[in-house]
């Protein structure tokens, strides 16, 4: 083997070790609960829910 081929082989080994250090294991699993974020589609409007469906009984039937 020539000196250049030995050096190239050593560079390949270093590159392989670097790849293994970076990609040698799988990442930690992600929980399903962490995959979904729930947010309201619109901000709550307090005036929207002030209607009382039984209020007409008090006003008109009492």
Could you please describe the fold and organization of this structure?
The model has no long low-confidence stretch (mean pLDDT 80). The chain has helices spanning 3-23, 55-60. Helices cover 44% and strands 0% of the residues. With 62 residues, the protein is mostly helical.
Give me some keywords for this one:
62 residues, mainly alpha, 2 helices
SSE string, helices as H and strands as E: HH
Question: Beta-strand percentage?
Answer: under 5%
The parts where pLDDT drops under 50 for at least 5 residues are none
Could you report the average pLDDT, rounded to the nearest whole number? 80
Derived from helix and strand composition plus strand pairing, the structural class reads mainly alpha
Assembly level: single chain
| Distance N to C terminus | 107 Å
Helix content percent band: 40-55%
Number of helices: 2
Radius of gyration from CA coordinates: 34 Å
| Total number of strands | 0
Largest sheet: none
Gross morphology? rod-shaped
